[in-house]
Amino acid sequence: MPAVSDRRQQIRHTATGLFAEHGFHGVSMQDIGYACGISAPAIYKHFAGKDAILTEALVAISDELLATGRYRAGRAPDPMAAIDALIGWHIEFALENRAYIVAQEREWSNLDESGRAAVRARQLAYIDVWVDTVRQLRPAWDQPQARAAVQATFGLLNSTPHSARIGKVRMRELLTSMARAALLREP
Question: Which of 7, 61, 153, 173 is the most exposed place for a label (fewest CB within 10 A)?
Fold first, then answer.
């Protein structure tokens, strides 16, 4: 039997996949329980309901993006290596976590106000890691311009769940080249 934290993670991950595939309102607690191999009432030992599962899933994945982004950028020897590390991390995330991207995109309105605030705070901190790095490479860009470029690049990278049809290796190469061009080539 999985430990409580392992079970919570399993429920979050499974539910996120179901939300991405069928929509938040198209998934019941019974569906989640069945997919996890437990009863729906057993889920209530871990979560108050579907909204709590969605909120925790999106907060946890936002925490992972931020922590890993900070770690990889912080270990880079220079700003160019840092931007490459950030691009590589985000592409890796997008290719391996399609359901989380789709669930956030489609189910944002199903988060309560505090859930949206928690996710948004982490996302803004993650964006700032990128903006700080980009501004070291593009000192002529002010904060709003760097933020706009970073968020546009995220739009490109986060479209992966809808566009990755050429295999992960080729998609990774394509996205890396496009993201670098978006952030580093002179307009």
Answer: 173
pLDDT exceeds 80 at position 1 = no
Three-class secondary structure of residue 27 per DSSP: coil
Which CATH number among 3.30.70.270, 1.50.40.10, 1.10.40.50, 1.10.357.10 corresponds to the domain 49-184? 1.10.357.10
- Kindly report whether the global pTM for this prediction surpasses the value 0.85: yes
Residue 37 has, within 13 A of its CA and on its CB side, a CA count of 5
Helical (H) or strand (E) element with 184: helix 168-184
Tokens representing 176 are: 């890396």
Q: At what angle do helices 50-75 and 29-36 cross, to 10 degrees?
A: 60
